[in-house]
Amino acid sequence: MSTEGIAYGWSEQGKKIYVENGVIGDICDVKIYKREKGSYTGKAIYFHKRSDLRLEPICPHFGLCGGCRWQFVSYEQQLLWKQELVQELFDIPIPPVLPAPQTLFYRNKLEFSATNDRWVTELESPELTGNKSVGEAPEANALGFHVPHRWAKIFQVDTCYLQPDPSNSLRLAIKEIAEELGITFYNPVQQIGTLRNVTIRTSSTGQVMVIIAFYPDQLEQQIALLSRLYQRFPTITSLYSVQNAKGNDSIYDCELSLFAGQPYIMEKIGDLSFAITPKSFFQVNTSQAERLFQLVLEFAQLNNNETVYDLYCGTGAISLTAARHSQKVVGIELIADAIRDAKFNAELNNITNVEFITGDLQTISIPNLVCQYGQPDVVITDPPRSGMTNKVIAQLLTIAPAKIIYVSCNPVTQARDVKNLLHKYHVRKIQPLDMFPQTAHVENVLLLEAMS
């Protein structure tokens, strides 16, 4: 199993052959669709013997959808593979992965895309499978997920096992109401059509946010869709619309309009409350996020006297958790909207010993921050999947905190970064935990302590 979570074998010439729908132990014929210098990538098209590890997936979209790619093996096996993936990257023993309490319906956020030219499966119509339209009938419309490796192709999602209700009911209702109103569905190639995207956010408090993105067209029908949806689901806490005429689907540079309800939904982790706005970044697995924050505190061993820097702090969840146990916390984040949310959440929880700064860690001077806010005893860093840059690492080595706690959603880049810190630090603790069951992704938390 590769670090990307794809099974592989070797050709007679010694090249790796990645098999996207393969399981360790399968004996199969593979159709190659991608050739690179040292490897091939393909798909199993005939099984001589299926692995004893295989289970029947619960999801009807498994195999087409790229979301739950490990649903064909037991959860216990998934955890073993994730531990092995982390072990391959580090030279120290890796403890068992902390399991998620829920392996289905664990996400609090999903994004769905619309199309007027949906992907046709082989079971539906062998002669139209793949890139051909199913015609001008309403059945040509879809509100679902992108087909892996085909950005312009979207398949209809009937049931998704990732997000709890009312997620499925909301998505199906939006599609139904849109078709009743004659609203056109967006075509990403031609860039025409009104209904573009739907984002659904849920919280452990039972609140629900729905964001519907439209191309600026059929404005009366848009309002009618929003009105009918709110009438059918009056328990929606926050209903937004957004007009997006850009070539990409991102709404982070668009202005959103609150159609009904309150501007945010509330989430609780431990004794902290968080206001989640449409553009907020928040861990998508709430129950495991609480375990993650506890793990950071366990590694930090704070005693109310420390100064803590939280790099890539987002909306401040880890910062506010640490602030309850330290003298001062300084959170740094590139996205201004996230910092605004972080400051609001600090006020919401009556936390006053935290400073939030909008800044790009590529250009901001961390030593200058030290002059202003003091030397950090602990630095917590939770970078994006790409990891930290050499410049950020160099600044960490310059300010030399006693402890660095590195939280990563990509242990590959985490291992790369840690190697660049090892001439001043040693790895004291490491603990992977599972934020995304049924997938190859694994979160990893690592404690680095300065050498004496």
Could you describe the 3D structure shown?
There is one protein chain. Helix 2 packs across helix 3. The model is unreliable at 128-137 (pLDDT under 50). The protein is globular. 40% of the residues are buried. The chain has helices at 75-87, 167-180, 219-232, 286-300, 317-323, 336-348, 366-373, 390-399, 411-419; strands at 7-10, 16-19, 27-35, 39-49, 109-115, 142-147, 150-156, 195-202, 208-214, 238-243, 256-261, 265-269, 272-276, 307-311, 328-333, 354-358, 378-381, 403-408, 425-433, 443-450. The strands form four sheets. Strands 7-6-5-8-9-10-11 form a seven-stranded mixed beta sheet. 23% of the residues lie in helices and 28% in strands. It has 452 residues and is an alpha/beta fold.
